[in-house]
Amino acid sequence: MNIKELSEVLKETNFQEDMLHSLVEKGFGSLPARETALTILELILQHYPEWKDNPPEDYELARLLRTSPRKIRGLRDDLAYRDPRKDDDWCLNELTELLKGAERIKDGAYVTFEIDDGLVRDFARKLVRKNLGVFESGLNNTVVKISGEQFIALTMTILPESEFKKLEKVLSKEIAKEKVKDKDVSPIRLFVNSFIKSAGTQAGKKSVDLAFTVLTGGLSDVKDAIDYLKELIKK
């Protein structure tokens, strides 16, 4: 596609009217260059019929608009943050679906997936920092490649609140009972560390297996989940 072809399609929509309104609403020429670029890009993505539900790749847009994919990515991330529909619940649902679609690599001990939306990527980092501390390697780029241990850690952060609280309560009790050196350690991080230790050389692969189990049915699908977790803590 080229600009002429894009223009022909947009002529059949309200693109020109909406763009004119947006550019003069606050006074013609008053918008900074970046705001003007954001406005035009947002309207293109909204009005081009085939891109409403299936937005193009950054590379495709960059070639079309004669700029760099990095600049397009930055603009799209800004637009994501400004979209009122994208609240925390939306981000959680998006992240869950992305994790469900992760692909196993390196004999199943690692996974890879894409987080195209910068808002969702930042949301994932926030969850990991909150529940696991500094444990977010691989979450800085669109294409994410992480170990099984990191995958199960991330998966635990998106559990339904009821299950997360249940898990946290059980693990907190076990921390109090056992001789844990660092009493301030996150219960979820303790679970992850304990699981990895118990799994031995198969830790990566078993972590991926458990993560997919949690994603498809939550801890309720893990046989005798609470007793299982307690045993892990004691090992």
Element layout with pairings:
Layout: H1 3-10, H2 15-24, H3 33-47, H4 58-65, H5 69-82, H6 88-100, E1 103-105, E2 110-114, H7 118-132, E3 143-147, H8 148-156, H9 161-177, H10 187-199, H11 203-217, H12 225-234
Helix pairs in contact: 2-3, 3-5, 4-5, 6-7, 8-10, 8-11, 9-10, 9-12, 10-11, 10-12
List keywords for this structure.
235 residues, 2 domains, 12 helices, three-stranded antiparallel beta sheet, 3 strands, mainly alpha, single chain, elongated
Number of helices: 12
Sheet with most strands: strand arrangement: 1-2-3
Radius of gyration: 23 Å
Number of domains: 2
Structural class: mainly alpha
Strand content: 5-15%
Q: On the 0-100 scale, what is the average pLDDT?
A: 79
Q: What overall geometry do the principal axes of the alpha carbons give?
A: elongated
Tell me the number of strands: 3
Biggest β-sheet strands, sense, barrel: 3 strands, antiparallel
> How far is the N terminus from the C terminus?
60 Å
What series of H and E elements makes up the topology?
HHHHHHEEHEHHHHH
Percentage of residues in helical conformation? 55-70%
Query: Segments where pLDDT lies below 50 for 5+ residues?
Result: 221-225
